[in-house]
Design a protein that fits this description.
Chain lengths: 118, 113
């Protein structure tokens, strides 16, 4: 299994530009999560999907951020327009809801996209 | 107040030392407790997983959960330089509602040869 795949690994852009981050979850997983990680705030959940449907977007900082999951194997996180304070590492993670007696919420993370907005 | 509190460190120890990493939490509904390890410029990876209270051991690693105190710990015995990483605790309520995890800030550990 290739794991969660994110692209690009690094993105450098200028303030005001549109940024699109991409994620391919592990095949068969039904949850997908977008996180942002900074030194100051740690790992923050931005939004998550279940079966391609957004469930909770309360962590999305503002309207400049949007996320889509058009199918089970692809998701995007878009920032438009980007600002220097958006500079962070963005992670995508996926999980499979275990319907056993003791259900598990183990999330598997991608390698992240390091975003720098100048 | 954050739901999960974790001292960010950094924590520096000599090789071979026993390391203790800790998190406290406020939500008594949490039932699933995890420790993720994150190497520099990598994504977090699951290290240990426990359900409810008790201990779990895996090689040099031991995870403890004390629900009465709302306190979880990760112990690393005979620490190695390769253990140098950031350790994040994570927890969730019983599944049936969401797959959402609440993460601590992460503790940066450096093991010196």
């Amino acid at each position: 299994d290739a794991g969660v795949i994110q692209s690009p690994r690094h993105e450098v852009t200028e303030m005001g530009q549109e940024v699109t981050l991409r994620c391919k979850p592990i095949s068969g997983h039904d949850y997908l999560f977008w996180y942002r990680q900074t030194m100051m705030r740690g790992l923050e959940l931005l939004i998550y999907f279940n079966n391609n449907v957004p469930i909770d977007d309360s962590g999305m900082p503002e309207d400049r951020f949007s996320a889509k999951m058009p199918n089970a194997s692809f998701s995007t996180l878009k920032i438009q327009p980007s600002e220097p304070r958006d500079s962070a590492v963005y992670f995508c993670a996926s999980s499979l809801r275990d319907r056993g007696r003791i259900a598990k919420n183990i999330q598997y993370f991608g390698a992240g996209t390091r975003l720098s907005v100048l | 107040q954050k739901e999960v509190e974790q001292d960010p460190g950094p924590l520096s120890v000599p090789e071979g030392a026993i390391v203790s990493l800790n998190c406290t939490y406020s939500n008594s509904a949490f039932q699933y407790f995890m420790w993720y390890r994150q190497y520099s410029r990598k994504g977090p990876e699951l290290l240990m997983y426990t359900y409810s209270s008790g201990n779990k051991e895996d090689g040099r690693f031991t995870a403890q959960v004390d629900k009465s105190s709302k306190y979880i710990s990760l112990f690393i015995r005979d620490s190695q330089p390769s253990d140098s990483a950031t350790y994040l605790c994570a927890m969730s309520r019983p599944s049936g509602n969401t797959g959402k995890l609440i993460f601590g800030q992460g503790t940066t550990l450096q093991v010196k040869p």
